[in-house]
Design goal:
The chain is mostly helical. It has a single domain, classed as Glycosyltransferase (Alpha/alpha barrel), CATH 1.50.10.20. It contains six helices and three strands; from the N terminus they run ααβββαααα.
């Protein structure tokens, strides 16, 4: 698993947070798919990042009691900390992208669907809220504003899953989140 900071210092987290790890995974996957015959080391690195991402998966967690990726992971506790909807959207999108890039050989659409359920639970449904709608950033109380970084990737995930499955509820999710 990647280190969060370099060079490491006493007191630094054991591992990277979920979002930077997901972006390293996305970049490594893009590189491996861009090469006609990726070197074994590149494939091994991609596989190691996929395994590392799994360490953040919490089967039933947070305020919603839905599964999702937690922000942090360490050697002693495993997945822990708050769930950020944007982190989950990016990892869900990565699962879909890998599925598309490999003609279904990689990428877990079941996991992407579970992430979409979590994202739905983070939707602002308060009609009295200023500019109602969108996806909250996190389940963490004071930091729970809605913003583009959580709403747009959630809509993109819903739209991609709609294209793959034909499920109209996913299309409606994407349309609602983008208006």
């Amino acid at each position: 698993m990647l280190s969060e900071l370099y060079p490491r210092r006493d007191g630094d987290p054991d591992y990277s947070y979920c979002w930077p790890l997901s972006q390293a995974r996305a970049a490594a996957c893009e590189l491996s798919y861009a090469l006609p015959t990726p070197p074994r080391a590149v494939n091994a690195f991609v596989a190691s990042l996929e395994r590392a991402q799994e360490a953040y998966w919490y089967p039933a967690g947070g305020e919603t009691d839905l599964p999702g990726y937690t922000a942090a992971c360490d050697a002693e506790q495993g997945p822990h900390g708050d769930m950020y909807y944007d982190d989950n959207a990016w990892v869900g999108l990565q699962e879909v992208e890998e599925h598309l890039m490999t003609n279904g050989r990689r990428g877990d659409l079941g996991r992407a669907r579970a992430v979409l359920e979590l994202l739905r639970s983070g939707e602002d449904t308060d009609p009295d809220a200023p500019s109602p709608g969108g996806i909250f950033w996190t389940q963490a109380g004071e930091e729970s504003g809605r913003n583009t970084v959580s709403t747009v990737p959630s809509a993109k995930l819903a739209l991609r899953l709609h294209v793959l499955t034909g499920e109209d509820t996913m299309l409606r999710d994407a349309q609602r989140w983008m208006t």
